[in-house]
Design a protein that fits this description.
Distance between the termini: 35 Å
Number of domains: 2
Oligomer: single chain
Pfam families: SIR2
Keywords: Mitochondrion, NAD, Transferase, Transit peptide
CATH superfamily of the largest domain: TPP-binding domain
Largest sheet: 6 strands, parallel
Protein name: Deacetylase sirtuin-type domain-containing protein
Strand order of the largest sheet: 3-2-1-7-8-9
Organism: Vanrija albida
Family: Belongs to the sirtuin family. Class I subfamily.
CATH architecture of the largest domain: 3-Layer(aba) Sandwich
Structural class: alpha/beta
Order of helices and strands: HHEHHHEHEEEHHHEHEHEEHH
Number of strands: 9
Strand content: 5-15%
Number of helices: 13
Length: 383
């Protein structure tokens, strides 16, 4: 029997030695970032992780020291979610009940300043391509704000269906997105919002609890995948809707899964191939806000180094790449360094993209999750 566990960092071989850029003044760190990006000649690939979304109120899996920040949390593994049995049905009830309450905060989260800075690198053609491990859709929201500004420089709403002005700015969601779901038997997709509405219709007591949480602000602790903690909750009466398409075809199919990669699940081959292709096309890698604990992301850094490409990390805490030869690291918050760099860029460049970036550099919203959510112990949910 293969034991599947949550990916974690390997034990350190010794104390970490911080580079000078980790403690240098922000302008000096920004100048070093600028020299790095200049060397990329518009072909730098950015890779991001959960640390980028913390300022949007979405808790990261690991703390600043790299340890799993909630060791008592047990996620649903892929094999449990898709098991076609009474036991699997209970796992799906647990997953969807908890996700029903945890999805709205992720859905409603707004890009924070770091999302806007990374989108600015894309819009300016400095680092146009992006791979993210996050499933929260916030990088797409940030880039959409810049595209909308380019369509209508006054900030008015663009005409319906107006084409995006930036051209190709690929965003590859390495671990999928919470925005869509699909059934496993027919592969039929629908938006998560549509499935959320179906979950609410099937479970009116949970729908009422969700409304009360929204009104009072007394919400359970939310993890980056939209799962929440509900100590002692009884999920036996929770009803998971069947796939609407399958039901219309008179087929029984209650195994519906979000379009995210679960623990214990392998990446789709197309996504894996696309990630390696983006690394091959890039001149170098900028890695932001991640410990690279998952191998699917870490192997991209290994591939880049095997191809002789430079890698610069800006992230807090230890990472899986700390011992990889040739990886330079600033162990610090990325936002201030990116902002200082972009402040200089918009002073020296001209064009519509620069104007849009200048107008939206302060558009990000900061809503950090509290370090301790004592309120979650008092959350009321259906017994």
């Amino acid at each position: 029997m293969v034991r599947i566990s949550i990916p974690n960092l390997p034990p350190s071989a010794g104390p970490r030695i911080l580079s000078g850029l980790s403690v240098a003044p922000v302008p000096e760190a920004a100048a070093a970032l600028g020299a790095f990006l200049d060397a990329g000649r518009g072909r730098t690939l950015t890779i991001t992780g959960a640390g980028v979304s913390v300022d949007s109120g979405i808790r990261a899996y690991r703390g600043k020291e790299g340890a799993y920040s909630n060791p008592n949390y047990k996620p649903i593994f892929y094999g449990e979610l898709v098991e076609d049995s009474a036991r699997g049905e209970m796992f799906r009830k647990r997953y969807w009940a908890r996700s029903f309450l945890g999805y709205p905060p992720v859905r409603d989260a707004l890009p924070n300043p770091t999302h806007m800075y990374i989108a600015s690198l894309q819009a300016l053609g400095i680092a146009p391509a992006l791979i993210t491990q996050n499933v929260d859709n916030l990088h797409r929201k940030a880039l959409a704000l810049l595209e909308a500004r380019l369509r209508t420089p006054t900030g008015d709403a663009p005409p319906p269906g107006h084409a995006a002005p930036l051209g190709p700015r690929p965003i590859l969601e390495l671990h999928g997105t919470l925005a869509r779901v699909h059934c496993l038997r027919g592969g039929h997709e629908q938006t998560r919002d549509a499935f959320q509405a179906a979950l609410g219709a099937e479970n009116p007591a949970w729908e009422a609890a969700a409304r009360e949480m929204e009104e009072t602000g007394n919400k359970p602790r939310t993890n980056p995948d939209g799962d929440v903690e509900l100590p002692g909750a009884d999920y036996t009466t929770f009803r998971v809707p069947e796939c609407a398409v399958c039901s219309g075809q008179r087929k029984h199919n209650s195994i519906v899964k979000p379009n995210v990669v679960f623990f214990g699940e392998t990446l789709p081959e197309g996504v894996k191939d696309a990630s390696f292709h983006l690394v091959e096309q890039a001149s170098q890698l900028l890695v932001v806000g991640t410990s690279l604990a998952t191998y699917s992301a870490f192997r991209l850094i290994k591939a880049a180094r095997e191809q002789g490409k430079s890698v610069l990390m800006i992230s807090q805490g230890p990472s899986r790449a700390d011992a990889v030869d040739g990886v330079e690291k600033m162990e610090r918050k990325a936002g201030p360094v990116l902002r200082a760099y972009l402040d200089e860029v918009v002073k020296t460049r001209t064009g519509a993209e620069v104007d849009a970036v200048r107008a939206l550099l302060d558009a990000g919203v900061t809503r950090r999750p509290p370090d301790v959510e004592d309120s979650r112990e008092h959350v009321q949910y259906p017994p």
